[in-house]
Structures are given as C-alpha cells and as structure tokens.
Specification:
about 15% helix; Glutamic_endopeptidase; globular; about 475 residues; nine-stranded antiparallel beta sheet; Neprosin_propep; Neprosin; Neprosin PEP catalytic domain-containing protein
Length: about 475
C-alpha cells in the first residue's frame, strides 16, 4: 500500500462508522498494534534492503532516522488510528472505538427491529421500575403490521360476555401495575406499550428468537427442560377459561430460565400444529432484564416453531385498553405468611365475531386475538390448562433452583403456597361452568407439586409450586 492510498482511504472513510468494521489490525508479538504508517515504513525498509547486496545490508544511521521521522510525522495526518478489538471497544461508539463487521451488522438489524416494533408515541410515561410506557395510537399498534390485519382498526367491545358465576370479590382495580401508580394514563384512542430497548434484544440468543418461548417438544416429556405443575381438562369443546391467579415474585436463578403462572387455551396436537392462547404473569430475566412478576400474553399456531410471541412484540394480539400495559410489572405482590394478591383473568370466544377476548378482573377488556390467525382455535379449544411452568437449563450440571409460584410446595397452603381459584370454562352457549373430569400433572413432583380441592368460596382451586432443587430434587 503506498502512502497516497493510505491517505485516500482515511479521507474517504473517516466519517463512515462501518469503515472500522472492515479495517483490520495487525497485532505484533509484543501486543502493539501496527498503524498504517508503520506498515509503510516496514515496506520501505524491506524494499531498500532487498535492493542492496549482502555487503551493504547495514543501513546508514541517518537514513533510518529519516525514515522514522517521516513515518511518525505522517501517522496522525494520513493514517487511521487502529484500536484494539477488546471488550472495551464494543461498549459504544462514543470513544470512537471500532467494532467487527458482525457486531455492526447485528446492531443495524437490532435497530431496524426496534423501529418496527416501537411505534411513535403521542405520550411517554416513566415507570418507577425504569420501564418506558409509550402511548401509541390504537390503529398504529404492532398488531396491524400482520398481513391479515393490515389497514384494520380495533373492534368495539363485544356486547355479550360469558354468563354466570361471577364472584363478588373480583372488582379488582385496573391500577395493578407499577407504571400507573402515579395516576398517569394513556389518552383515549391510544394503547400503552412497554418500550423495547436494545438491551432487551441483546439478552436474547438471536433477534429471531427474541420475544418467543423456546420450542416445547411434548407437554409431559420428562426429557424437556420445561417443567409443569398444572391441572387440565380435555375431551370436550371449550370456548374459554377463567381463573384468579395468585401473584408472587419467585426467584429465577439463571438468565435463560423463567417462572410463570398462566391459563392455556389449546387446540391441535403437540407436534407442529399446536394452537395456544396464553395469559398470566411471569418472571423472565432474559425478556425483561429483571425479576419483577409481569402481566403477559402469548400465542402460537405452530407449536412455538415460527409463529407467535409474548405481549405485543409481534403482530397478532390487538389491544383495546388504554390503562393496562401488557408486559409491565405487577404491583402489589403476595408475600409469605402475609397479605395475598391475585388477578382475575378470562379468555373467551366472542359468539358473534369469533375472536378470542382477554378480560381482566370483572369486566375490564384488555384486547383480543383475531380468529383468522389460527387454524384449530378458529372454531374452539380442545383443552384448557391452568398452572405453573418453569425452564430448567441445568446450566450448573444439576436441577435449577428457580422457584415456581411462591417457591413453596402445595402442602403448605394459604399465604404460603401459590394458588389458582374459581377455575371455570366457557361452553358452546357462552356459559361459565365448573371444571369436570380434572387431570393433574406435576412432571417433577419432587421439585414442584400440586394439590387440588373444591369449596363453596373458591369453587375449584389448587395450590402448586416448589423450590426447585432440594434433597429430593438433585
């Protein structure tokens, strides 16, 4: 490389942030980094010596000094300063450090994805936990990026709701999330959406897998890293489900694990065509970057392979409520042997339009999953499931200590174990009915278990959960 090319390269690319990604360094044995001018000096020296005989290999001292002076003087002018590609160099561009091409490309893709899912807000609310809640015009929310939904607007609330068996103690305030504690709310005509950050996506294994559950091979497989303590009903046609879910903040001991408690509405098989609609609360350090329990939704039409996502992280679920932010932290939570807190959730199929609606408490609609996104769930569900799920990565070579529910076994009961109460399903005539032919599943009962019962106050209920690793769960 001659000096004109070196100077030209720097002049043409000094303002290009991606030039650094392709400008490779040469590292010497003594860990010094070779600059452009130093390489040129080395070439001049080699050229000079190659043209001399062995008898004239000793260079005149004055010539060597002259070369050193020339090359050192042109370094700041003509040569781009090369910075070591260390971990410090990847922390940001404010110190003009350089990034490898793969890192730059990844960041460009992340920014493009953020632009896609973070819609322009008309107002932003700062939550005490650090979240930013964007108030987005309802017709601009991510759902309407879906090819089957593009150009549409949210539907009006369904007139007909599931009938019967509403409990008197379910008048829960909409203010059950940290971001709304200040009294601020999104204006009418907008929906609150938790803003996704670059750090959120960087915690995921890839952009494609961000906001998605790991693929579940079989619901009851002991070889799966997903472990459950659930009750379920099947064998009939179901048009919805309802329960009140006790909220805790279980300890999750690995970034790539989660602990959740939810309702599943299911159709299809556990192969590649499983359809699910899911809602509840979860603790997921990978998805949210903390250990707060958060209100969440999920859906898939192909057994978690390529479709669906959490919350509003892809197009699908259409939100209609301007006071509840899906993915935001829940407050208050339950504590051991003291006050208990639960949230009532209902998922049901609107008889008129066929969409699956999500209701919070008694009568507060959150939004809906359009029926035309599904295959099997387009008509009805064939299974309804309630309970807890954790991921056990065995990252330390033994069973995880990630907790389910309260982190205590079912036998400890009220104020100590987590619970679901008032379990019901919706039938073909939009009636809420108690569960029949209930099945239990605790696929690792020494780690997490379940105990079901019935009484006049809680109807069908169960306690569930556990600490994970213990003397009986190695």
């Amino acid at each position: 490389m001659d000096m004109k090319k070196c100077a030209s390269s720097w002049k043409n690319h000094s303002n290009d942030p991606f030039y650094a990604a392709y400008h490779h360094t040469i590292r010497q044995p003594n860990n010094h980094v070779t600059t452009c001018a130093q390489k040129h000096f080395h070439k001049l020296l080699t050229a000079f010596t190659s043209q001399n005989t062995p008898h004239t290999m000793l260079l005149p001292a004055a010539f060597v000094v002259l070369l050193l002076l020339v090359t050192s003087s042109i370094t700041p002018t003509f040569c781009h300063p090369i910075v070591s590609n260390s971990s410090h160099a990847l922390k940001g561009s404010t110190n003009q450090t350089l990034r490898p091409a793969s890192e730059v490309l990844k960041l460009r893709r992340i920014k493009a994805h953020l632009t896609k899912i973070n819609k322009p807000p008309v107002k932003t609310i700062q939550s005490p936990d650090g979240d930013l809640i964007d108030c987005v015009l309802s017709h601009q929310q991510p759902a309407f990026d879906h090819p089957k939904l593009r150009g549409q607007k949210p539907l009006d609330p369904p007139i007909e709701r599931p009938k019967g068996n509403y409990s008197n103690d379910e008048t829960v305030s909409e203010s059950f999330q940290l971001w709304s504690d200040s009294g601020e709310a999104c204006p009418e005509g907008t929906v609150p959406i938790r803003r996704t950050t670059e750090e959120d996506i960087l915690r995921a294994s890839s952009i494609r897998k961000f906001g998605r559950k790991p693929r579940l091979v079989r619901r009851a497989s002991i070889d799966s890293d997903h472990e459950h303590a659930v009750v379920f009903v099947n064998g009939e046609q179901y048009y919805g489900a309802k329960a009140s879910i006790n909220v805790w903040a279980p300890r999750v001991t690995d970034q790539y694990e989660f602990s959740l408690s939810q309702i599943w509405v299911i159709a299809g098989s556990f192969g590649r065509d499983l359809n699910t609609i899911e809602a509840g609360w979860q603790v997921s350090p990978e998805l949210y970057g903390d250990n707060y329990p958060r209100f969440f939704t999920y859906w898939t039409t192909d057994s978690y392979h390529t479709t669906g996502c959490y919350n509003l992280l892809c197009s699908g679920f259409i939100q209609t409520n301007n006071r509840i932010a899906i993915g935001a932290a829940i407050s208050p939570r339950s504590a051991y042997n003291t006050r208990q807190f639960d949230i009532g959730l209902t998922v049901w199929k609107d008889p008129k339009h066929g969409h699956w609606w999500l209701e919070f408490g008694s009568g507060v609609l959150v939004g809906y999953w359009p029926a035309n996104m599904f295959s099997h769930l387009r008509s009805h569900a064939s299974m309804v499931q309630f309970g807890g799920e954790i991921v056990n990565t065995r990252s330390r070579g033994y069973h995880t200590s990630t907790q389910m529910g309260s982190g205590h076994f079912a036998e400890e009961g009220f104020r100590k174990s987590a619970y679901f109460r008032n379990l019901q399903v919706v039938d073909w005539d939009n009636n809420l009915l108690p569960l029949r032919n209930i099945h239990h599943l605790a696929d690792h009962s020494n780690c997490y278990n379940i105990k079901q019962g019935t009484n006049n106050v809680w109807g069908t209920y169960f306690y569930y959960g556990g600490p994970g690793r213990n003397v009986r769960c190695p």
